[in-house]
Amino acid sequence: MQLLNTLYLTTPESYLRLDNQTLAIEQDGALKLRVPLHHLNAVVCFGHIQLSTPLMHHLAQQGIALVLLDANGRFQARLEGPTAGNVLLRQAQHRASADAALTLSLARSFVAGKIRNARSLLLRGAREARNEADARALTRQALNLAAGLRALPGCGTLDALRGVEGEAAREHFVGLSLLVRPDARDAFSMRDGRSRRPPRDRLNALLSFLYSLWMNDCRSALEAVGLDPQVGFLHALRPGRAALALDLMEEFRPQADRLALTLINRQQLRSGDFVEREGGAVSLHADARKAVLVAYQERKQDVLQHPLLSQPVALGLAPLIQARLLARAVRGELDADGQPAGYLPFLIK
């Protein structure tokens, strides 16, 4: 199993073209880099990046996704070749989405994974807190998340489940600001909780950017195993919305949170790396985006213990492994005891 390799292009007006079996990157008419195409799973372009038509054809033929994002990381378009995967798996997925009990069970697993991982992040922060007040506050928030976990089995509808998830998310973001080093909290705090469109502060802007990266990797993983990213279970179906990718991404959001905190607390990002625009929107400067992308790619190399496989795996492989486990649950496969396999989220300690 190979790590999903993604090429990120952030320099405006770069020109990408096909050069034999490599992707050539030019700036101001000068060749800057060649990348062998067989190393790539996806090419992600931020902002005004130009591409040749032969390159786009070749990417589609080779099954390499081309993703177009705006300069702030918001999704614009995706170019892919013929639909991959077993049509029988997609049929099973559509049947599963119409099965209320199975839909609720899978949605509950996504939410449980998100809450458990968020709780682990807060508890780790409480153990490492430099003052007692922060430690107590973080422990309290972790207890509130534990209460949310206990409430999940009693959720008999998707709306009830989404209510528990929303409340847990609010509790988590309250605690997240306390994980920022004290001397950086004025610059990196959530002014009014989570804000997305647009982000209203630096921490929200950084999280939105990292979430968009995880979203792209989760969608690529689902497509790699043949699942339809549009047909989800927790997130409501809407035209153009990759609901299943959003479902799968939930358990990985705390990983994005952890990386955001690392970048801030190690002072790899500072307040000057962000720009505040008219209307209150906040975004990363171009050089800061590059630094985040490098850190993200490095973090994907981290090796963690998988809770089901009981073996170490690179974090960047986790979405692909989880997509395969999800496909197993959608197909209704049985475990060693002859029971429906279900779906076990990727849990961190």
UniProtKB/TrEMBL annotation:
Quick one: which residues bind Mn(2+)? 165, 235, 250
Q: Which InterPro entries match?
A: Cas1 (IPR050646), CRISPR-assoc_Cas1 (IPR002729), CRISPR-assoc_Cas1_C (IPR042206), CRISPR-assoc_Cas1_DVULG (IPR019856), CRISPR-assoc_Cas1_N (IPR042211)
Write down the superkingdom of origin.
Bacteria
Q: Which Gene3D superfamilies match?
A: CRISPR-associated endonuclease Cas1, C-terminal domain, CRISPR-associated endonuclease Cas1, N-terminal domain
Please list the cofactors this protein needs: Mg(2+); Mn(2+)
Q: What does this protein do?
A: CRISPR (clustered regularly interspaced short palindromic repeat), is an adaptive immune system that provides protection against mobile genetic elements (viruses, transposable elements and conjugative plasmids). CRISPR clusters contain spacers, sequences complementary to antecedent mobile elements, and target invading nucleic acids. CRISPR clusters are transcribed and processed into CRISPR RNA (crRNA). Acts as a dsDNA endonuclease. Involved in the integration of spacer DNA into the CRISPR cassette.
Q: Which family does it belong to?
A: Belongs to the CRISPR-associated endonuclease Cas1 family.
Q: Subunit structure of this entry?
A: Homodimer, forms a heterotetramer with a Cas2 homodimer.
Task: Quote the protein name from its UniProt record.
Answer: CRISPR-associated endonuclease Cas1
* Organism expressing this protein natively: Pelomonas caseinilytica
